[in-house]
Design a protein that fits this description.
The complex is a heterodimer of chains A (518) and B (561). Chain A has 21 helices and 18 strands. Chain A is α+β, with helices and mostly antiparallel strands and 518 residues long. In chain A, strand 8, helix 12 and strand 9 form a beta-alpha-beta unit. The longest helix of chain A has 16 residues, at 412-427. Helix content of chain B is 29%, strand content 28%. Chain B is built from 16 helices and 26 strands. The chains are: A alpha+beta (518), B alpha+beta (561).
Chain lengths: 518, 561
């Protein structure tokens, strides 16, 4: 790792420790570091750990020091009395009353453990402060107990304090050792623990880094506060530098659904080209979905396996006249359309059968019957339903982008002109091909193939001039372009999706991660 | 529409020239065909034909013929279609058949040895025509026989099922037609096309030998055409005479294109048909029609002139005579798709090539606009997104379980949905009447996506309503939900309140009950005096049913202009 990278990766705690070590110009212990940096010992220990790993500091010295402190038992002795003190007091009390006291009497008071008592009696006898007379009776002497006094001094000295063993006089050291907690004798007043004192020093590399860190100046803070701005005290602070290369935390934000956003852009394009939006019903009659589009009732795409039928009610109450009769005539014998028609007995009952809209063109058919503007341009982005096995390329419901253009100047060449516009506006395509196509409701019919900058050659849509058998029965007497665009593949590639079902996924994480590539 | 297999060599022979696959692909424009697949190893080309009104193109012969016509710019003559003389063979139709399957047409094809390739193509054509054009053999079915095994005249009539036995194709023992219907695979597949009457349609020859049991199966003895056979009998039966005749015409020109001589057969009906009592088949039904030159020029947007149009149509197979302002056009006998002058206009365009027409922009100015409902939806979407809600977008078919049962709405007025009668799967059997279940579906699927989850969707729903024509109304709803620890009524209410403020809508909440929400923590959203929706904390029963372990507060209401 080079110096800059090391500097960047430096945590503020590390920087502090390095700075202090540089300033001290000698090895420092954890305690000294905590004191000098004003950090918690735990923070210092973290920083030291990291710096050791980065080899910016090394362990300079390691001292083991026995430290003396009071145990819980010692603390109790200190606050009340120690066993020898208590024994002396008890004997004196009895003697003042002219009473006598035996070892047994003392034990019966249950003030200390029997072992504590017997050790204390031994200590006092050794100091010749008491003597044992016949009948087990204890008596004090005129000699004071030196040891009892020494113990009391130690207890007082160690009150809320620890001290290295070596700082005590030898006699005290011996006494402490004798009365220190050890294996097998937990009830002792003193505790001796080894303290390992480590000091740390800068390595040459640490020296370099420490000279480059700048946290030594003034007071450091992580946060600029309103108060600092109010009183201007921000000038007294340096602001902790961040590791800006780290990944930031994620956010839960509000955002348009990426596929809907794609359709929004389609919608905007169409409006910008002068198209008005049409809307329709999810549930439609076969009449408006198919009959009005001159699809004969025996058409193979009208079978039970192609369209979803509604369970209840099965049929609409009525179909608006004169459209029903005029469309029926067009199917039977062409009516007034100049066509010979499909030549079959048209079933008006079938016309009322309710289905889930199977094609967006149904919306256009209704617009034709509803006094459309001439000249006029219309579009819809219509949810449609097909009886398909759901898989990676088939959804049960999907959007169709389709529409119509009405006008006296509408003919085959203006149809191609419109498709040219779609190619450049919708797919940024410069190369296009027009291929003859078949749709039941248009003649002539065209398939638009374009060379998309990201997808290569693709079919962008289909279009044609509505057959007079469609327009005339619906009361329209000018030529009409019908067009439809297939944009889902474009959307899928743009969103990096390979399965059409993912356009409508229920996986929030996937939606949060989805984005448009073009 | 049909996808067929053709073979490169066979196609080249029929089209009369060598061509690589790219060349063939570009020629396919002339027949609205799309090359789906190509196997260079055996020369197989898979082609999808788009035009459901051009069954003559659903075979290699038809594709090659249409291309050859344009390339050669020269008509093809089929003399058997214009012969006026009596045929030397006869097929008699007996009275009574008209109630079952009234029509039949037949011809002989001789002097052409059946090759493996030709036979495969013939069988493929037979299947596509009978299945798609003939609506699974209902309106049209086809039989092909070895001519040599048949003694004329042939008879077509009804026969009592138990009185006849013959060996059907694919079997070795004789059976009655009734046994065939209950045992033979084709009988099981197509038996429904016949009525349940005891009398069945049969074709038999002078010797009483059964040819076939249409539309089910041929006899094995005379109906099993083999490679190397020289002479064939073709027969088409059905319920629609023009379709029956057209089908035979297509089969006849196909075999003629392969070098066979077509011998017409006189079909003698007991009553007069639209084409007389005796119909000499194949029969050219198409008639000359006078069409306006102007109509074509107007449709195509260019003044091509009589001569150019005449040439284009002639190159495409029409017979054309021109006068000053109109054309007299006659379609070839293998086509029957001229309904309107626009059909002719398209053929002119295809014959000349779409590329020969210069595109021009429609000239009129129009004003574009979104519907007011869409504009309002977009305004709401912007607000919700600004509030920090992630927009969702769902498929709108779902199961009854999701839409009704899990929402605790079984048997309640809110639990009414539009149901599909012929659902393919329970998972897509109902149309949504509310969006909230779709947001819960997201929540159930996404417990691992970091919280909070603030979601909304705005979109169409279908509300059952027996009062309207269609039995349902399509409306646009907004639903929003908050899923996070501590999600509360007051929090979601704040968002609703802010939304209504920015939309400049007066609204009020009234305490109500709704099985999907917690009692005492649900309100009806009311604008004016219309109840538009609900707001509340989700009932734990609902969350449990969705296996959601997170409290949710939500609202849903109908968007109105």
């Amino acid at each position: 790792m080079d110096t800059t990278a090391l500097l960047d990766s430096l945590h503020p705690l590390e920087a502090k420790v390095l700075t202090i070590l540089k300033r001290a110009n000698k090895a420092l212990s954890d305690g000294e570091l905590a004191h000098a940096t004003e950090l918690d010992p735990s923070q210092v220990s973290m920083a030291v750990g990291w710096l050791l790993t980065k080899q910016l500091i090394v362990l300079a010295t390691e001292h083991i020091t026995p430290i003396v402190s009071l145990s819980e038992t010692g603390e109790t002795y200190r606050q009340t009395t120690s066993p020898p003190e208590w024994i002396l007091q008890s004997i004196q009390e009895h003697q003042t009353r002219g009473a006598r006291v035996t070892v047994k009497d003392l034990q019966a008071q249950n003030h200390f453990q029997p072992t504590e008592l017997s050790r204390a009696i031994g200590l006092l006898k050794k100091d010749q402060a008491i003597r044992l007379v016949s009948g087990g009776v204890l008596e004090t002497t005129d000699t004071a107990s030196v040891t009892t006094q020494a113990l009391r001094n130690l207890l007082t000295q160690l009150a809320e304090n620890t001290q290295p063993l070596t700082t005590f006089p030898d006699s005290d050291q011996a006494l402490i050792r004798q009365y220190a907690v050890k294996r097998g004798s937990a009830q002792e007043p003193f505790r001796i623990e080894d303290e390992i004192l480590r000091t740390y020093a800068l390595t040459p590399e640490g020296q370099t880094i420490s000279e480059l860190t700048t946290s030594e100046s003034s007071k450091e803070t992580s946060q600029l506060t309103p108060d600092m701005l109010k009183d201007g005290s921000w000038r007294n602070y340096s602001f902790r530098k961040y590791s800006i290369s780290l990944r930031p935390p994620r956010l839960a934000v509000g955002r348009r659904h990426p596929y809907r956003e794609f359709l929004d852009s389609v919608k905007q394009k169409l409006v910008s080209m002068g198209f008005q939006e049409m809307r329709g019903e999810l549930v439609e009659t076969e009449f408006w979905d198919m009959d009005a589009l001159y699809m004969p009732q025996f058409h193979p795409a009208r079978a039970i396996h192609d369209v979803y039928f509604v369970k209840n009610p099965t049929h609409a109450k009525s179909i608006a006249e004169p459209y029903l009769s005029q469309v029926a005539d067009a199917h039977r014998n062409g009516g007034t359309t100049g066509s010979k028609g499909w030549q079959y007995p048209y079933d008006r009952e079938r016309a009322r059968r309710l289905i889930l809209r199977s094609q967006g063109t149904a919306v256009s058919a209704k617009t034709l019957a509803n006094n459309p503007d001439v000249p006029g341009k219309y579009f819809s982005i219509a949810r449609c339903f097909r009886y398909d096995q759901v898989d990676a390329t088939h959804a049960t419901d999907f959007f169709q982008v389709e529409g119509i253009v009405l006008g006296h100047d509408i003919h085959f060449r203006t149809l191609l002109g419109l498709l040219n516009l779609f190619a450049s506006e919708m797919a940024q395509a410069k190369e296009i091909r027009f291929l003859p196509a078949y749709f039941p409701f248009t003649e002539p019919s065209v398939e638009l193939h374009v060379r998309h900058p990201h997808l290569g050659w693709m079919e962008l849509g289909g279009a044609g001039l509505f057959r007079p058998e469609v327009t005339i029965p619906l009361g329209v007497n000018v030529p009409v372009i019908a067009w439809g665009l297939g944009l889902d593949r474009m959307a899928m590639v743009a969103l990096g999706i390979h399965d059409i079902r993912d356009l409508f996924t229920s996986d929030l994480e996937a939606v949060r991660n989805m984005r448009r590539k073009f | 529409m049909p996808t067929i297999s053709i073979f490169h060599n066979d196609f080249e022979k029929l089209v009369g020239r060598r061509a690589d696959v790219n060349q063939i692909e570009s020629w396919l424009q002339l027949v609205k065909g799309e090359l789906k697949d190509h196997n260079p190893a055996n020369g197989e080309l898979r082609i999808e034909l788009q035009d459901s009104n051009r069954p003559d193109l659903w075979c290699v012969e038809g594709i090659a013929r249409q291309i050859r016509l344009v390339l050669d710019a020269k008509p093809i003559d089929y003399p058997f279609l214009s012969s006026k003389s009596r045929a030397k063979r006869r097929l008699t139709v007996l009275p009574g058949i008209e109630i079952v399957r009234p029509f039949v047409a037949a011809c002989a094809a001789t002097g052409h040895q059946v090759t493996e390739e030709g036979l495969n193509q013939l069988i493929q054509t037979q299947e596509k025509l009978a299945d798609i054009f003939g609506r699974k053999r209902q309106t049209v079915s086809i039989g092909i026989y070895r001519l040599a095994a048949i003694t004329f005249p042939v008879t077509y009539g009804l026969v009592k099922s138990e009185k006849t036995r013959f060996t059907p194709l694919g079997f070795t023992e004789k059976m009655t037609p009734q046994e065939i219907l209950s045992v033979h695979p084709k009988g099981l597949e197509y038996g429904a096309q016949l009525s349940q009457a005891d009398d069945v349609p049969l074709l038999w020859d002078k010797e009483g030998q059964v040819l076939s049991f249409p539309p089910i199966i041929n006899s094995r003895e005379v109906g099993e055409v083999q490679i190397g056979d020289q002479d064939l009998l073709l027969e088409v039966t059905g319920t629609d005479l023009p379709m029956v005749l057209l089908t035979l015409n297509i089969l006849a020109v196909n075999l003629a294109d392969r070098g066979a001589t077509i011998d017409p057969i006189d079909v003698v009906y007991p009553h007069a048909t639209a084409f007389g009592k005796t119909v000499n088949t194949p029969l050219d039904m198409s008639k000359s029609q006078r069409i306006s030159l102007k109509a074509i020029e107007h449709a195509l947007g260019t003044s091509l002139g009589s001569e150019v149009i005449q040439q284009a149509l002639s190159n495409y197979g029409y017979q054309v005579k021109a006068t000053q302002h109109s054309l007299s056009v006659k379609m070839p006998a293998y086509r029957h798709d001229l309904m309107h002058v626009m059909d002719v206009a398209e053929d002119v365009a295809i014959s000349r090539g779409y590329d020969s027409f210069t595109p021009i922009m429609p000239g009129h100015f129009t004003v574009g606009a979104l519907s007011s409902l869409e504009s309002l939806s977009d305004q709401i979407r912007d607000l919700m997104i600004g509030f920090g809600f992630q927009e969702m977008f769902s498929n709108i078919l779902a199961s009854r379980t999701e839409l009704v049962d899990r929402m605790q709405l079984t048997g309640t007025p809110q639990g009414l949905v539009v149901e599909v009668d012929n659902a393919m799967s329970e998972s897509y059997a109902c149309l949504r009447s509310s969006i909230l279940p779709f947001l819960l579906r997201v929540e159930a699927a996404s417990p691992r996506s970091f919280y909070p989850h603030l979601l909304f969707e705005i979109g169409e729903v279908a509300i059952p309503d027996m009062g309207v024509d269609l039995g349902s109304r399509t409306t646009v709803n907004l639903s929003a939900m908050i899923a996070q620890p501590g999600a509360s009524f007051s929090e979601i209410h704040s968002y609703l309140d802010l939304l209504m403020y920015y939309l400049v809508r007066e609204y009020r909440l009234e305490p109500s009950t709704h099985p999907s929400f917690l009692d005492g923590r649900v309100g009806t959203i009311i604008c004016g005096n219309r109840e538009l929706g609900y707001i509340g904390e989700l009932n734990p029963e609902v969350l449990e049913a969705w296996q959601i372990n997170m409290p949710i507060a939500a609202f849903e209401f109908q968007i109105k202009i």
